[in-house]
Structures are given as C-alpha cells and as structure tokens.
C-alpha cells in the first residue's frame, strides 16, 4: 500500500534546499523507510515536502518504502523498528540504520535526515 501523503508537494522549492537535496542524493543507494498514515495530521503536513525532497534528490522509487499504520499505530515493521510515533523515517544502507526522523523533531524531515546523514558520512 502506498501512502497518499507521500505525493510530492508541487510548490516545494528544491533550490531553497539545495544542500539538503544534494546530501539526500548522495544516499540514493540507501533505503528510505516511511511509517505514516493518510489520516494523520502530522503526516499530511510533513510527508509531502519530504516526498518532494526525495524527488528532487532523484531517489529511486524502489529505494522508498511505505509502511502505512492503522489508528493504533500497528503495521508492518512497527515492532522490529520500535515505531511509536508517526511519521517516522528510517534511512538504511546495507541493513545498517544511518538516520532516523521521529514525528516531533524541530526541523523538516529532509533537513533532519540530511544533517544525520552528513554526520554518518563524515564518520565513515
């Protein structure tokens, strides 16, 4: 099942977030796992911009996995990844978690993940 909230925001400005887009693009070989729900207000407000950032970074569709949850926040991978809040996004490469965004971070999903990914890249 695909999250409708992952439909890219058509007015999101990639040029205003060039560094973020570039960093995400550097991880085009990673997998972006998104837990969310179309009924969730936080998902509806945050995921379209994130989807637009993934598009701008040219992340292949087969590297973006959707994990819809029900109103009890149950669904595929919830227990295995310790998902409590949505949206949650986990970035993995070769089975290793590189970055994670959880619902109430103070910055947008793409910016938060890009910052973590830059740190992961500099320590690699």
From TrEMBL:
<dbReference type="InterPro" id="IPR013766">
    <property type="entry name" value="Thioredoxin_domain"/>
</dbReference>
<protein>
    <submittedName>
        <fullName>Thioredoxin domain protein</fullName>
    </submittedName>
</protein>
<dbReference type="Pfam" id="PF00085">
    <property type="entry name" value="Thioredoxin"/>
</dbReference>
<dbReference type="InterPro" id="IPR036249">
    <property type="entry name" value="Thioredoxin-like_sf"/>
</dbReference>
<feature type="domain" description="Thioredoxin">
    <location>
        <begin position="3"/>
        <end position="122"/>
    </location>
</feature>
